[in-house]
Design a protein that fits this description.
Two copies of one chain form a homodimer. Chain A is of the alpha/beta class. Chain A contains 14 helices and twelve strands. Helix content of chain A is 43%, strand content 15%. Chain A binds a DNA duplex through α2 and α4.
Chain lengths: 363, 363
Amino acid sequence: MAAACRTAFVETNPMDIREIARRAKVSTATVSRAINRVPTVDPQLAKRVWKVVDELGYYPNTQARSLVMGRSRIFGLIVSEFTNPFFPEIVQTFEDLAVENNYEILLSSTVHDPKRMESSVRRMIERRVDGVAILTFGMEEALLEHLRYRKVPLVFVDVGPNVPGVANIRVNYQNGIRQAVQHLAALRHTRIAFVCGPLHLKSALARRDAFKACMTEIGLSPDLIVVGDHHMEGGMRALNQLTQQSERPTAVLCSNDMTAIGLMREAYERDIKVPEDLSVVGFDDIRLAEFIIPPLTTVQMSQRELARTAFQALLNEVVSDPAAHDPRTYELNTNLVLRRSTALAAMTRQLVSSKREQRRRAL
Amino acid sequence: MAAACRTAFVETNPMDIREIARRAKVSTATVSRAINRVPTVDPQLAKRVWKVVDELGYYPNTQARSLVMGRSRIFGLIVSEFTNPFFPEIVQTFEDLAVENNYEILLSSTVHDPKRMESSVRRMIERRVDGVAILTFGMEEALLEHLRYRKVPLVFVDVGPNVPGVANIRVNYQNGIRQAVQHLAALRHTRIAFVCGPLHLKSALARRDAFKACMTEIGLSPDLIVVGDHHMEGGMRALNQLTQQSERPTAVLCSNDMTAIGLMREAYERDIKVPEDLSVVGFDDIRLAEFIIPPLTTVQMSQRELARTAFQALLNEVVSDPAAHDPRTYELNTNLVLRRSTALAAMTRQLVSSKREQRRRAL
DNA sequence: CGAGCGAGGGTAAACGTTTGCCCATATGCA
DNA sequence: TGCATATGGGCAAACGTTTACCCTCGCTCG
């Protein structure tokens, strides 16, 4: 990245490998080899080539390169929506890794629209990506066929088909949810509700089932469940439903953080104090979770880890023999992170010194 | 996007334009023309070509196409960090437009690291993008030279050099900030503070200057200014500094929303009630602003609008004669959006019925 | 009825790389 | 000294498109 572009500014002619070859008085083959650091090329010559390259500010044309090499060094990344707070961290991590490994990333969002999914897939194929990470929850099966057909390596989270050439990241929901449930139980909560995500989402069902299992494990009723939508609105509605119950829950576990945030927002409107009157636990640990007031106790499903795993999975597929090998699966764990949206259940709180006061003094 | 890939699944041979030509019994030229909907091609033939294309699930290789056409149909988008809540909306809108216009977007973040900026620029050049939107606030001048040198159309927000071939989006900070200041003044605030952004950012300075001007306009002291960093931490520190003042401000205007959110977080810790004890106004109107408790009154600088303008600007550069034309500039307005983080100044509030009560009843 | 013309399809060159293959030179060994 | 063998560089063929140019046909019009 020499500053030499000024000197060559008059130059308007094509700046390609041939021009470099001409000026360095070597063949294009040598230029190519020098640039790609093939060790057999004479250091003397290489230096001469690099000098010209720097002087002219030459950058190889990646398109021509991929054309002949048959590899584009592009990974596709399909998400639902960028504005979904679950994704920014993932995109950032993915890009960090891309830069590190000399890959580009082709970003695409489905915005839950079948037409957009189709165009996403088409774009991936047209640009000849070397692999696609599909991080949207729910994808038309038929479209995947198009990618599989072309032997494009794929990686899914949770929902991928169990076939060769497709890697899957399996999320262990149970682990984090058990921690959450037991944390609430330890705070003397017995009526613990769950706000579920949309029922057509595998990942939402998996979370709900984990909740049920973990409640049953410790002898609590797993039936206080209302359905949300993984958005704020669903959380707000959920709170309203829950407060209409004959016996209100004292704690709520939400299927994702946005739900919890909506629920807390509605609680604020109705003067229900979190955590004094109601303990709230989220799921995902999006960035926002620690910005909210009070900071949200939530089950972390590390987005960095997820992105890293996905990227590595693609990289593995690329280097390894693309022919039939075992369907690979990776595991992603979840863990509770404690913040300040949970407290002792209201009925017992009076017995001990105010948790909130304790905390405040601790600061 | 026919489902025909199953039938051809056995087929492992190259699926290129020649294969299509062979099967449709025409030349590659005709295939190319048919696919690109050149009107002179016989409809009969075109239909035959399309049939084969659909049957085989053929997608043209974009790399080969760009190579010969000299246009990649890729726009670069350089941002500071994806995790910065200012950007998701922008990225989403940019991608929506890209899909609409058959462009790809090459996403790159600088994470405020000169090395990354350099690699961003290199990647843009190597992939031969047709234009770059630089939405990071602050960019090494020398690197831009590399892009300008190659006549890559550029669009900046605010900080771009005023030269041909570079479009600029000028933000009218004054408008929104005046509305904010006057809104606070109307609520009887007289001691209004400003939390500035990092002093090396042009956009931060512009906001500060607008604040000063607007305060002076209405005869208030414009000197209650502390320096933040456009992050939560800066906002938290700022509140601490402000409360140490002999005479505390009753309202604070922040240089961006994250600052305001940090400040409100600190206020929560110190039991300073927003808006009862302190009115807070943000800047940007990131998505988060309306999720926070209380929802943040802020100056909106529409991210969708910004993205749309940037994209359109690039499109304009591409279609218009790339030779020297006037440096184009676009304008982006700002406007106050009222939410619930502002209220009558404390000393006067007792005189009227509680604003908060009024609001609550209104729900 | 023949020349001219226009419409439409085919041939092949070009885009900017990588890399298999071959050749020239230098080197080692007998 | 002469031959076998490395060593390193050049030539040119790919990669998969688009498109300038040419050719052929069928029509029109004189």
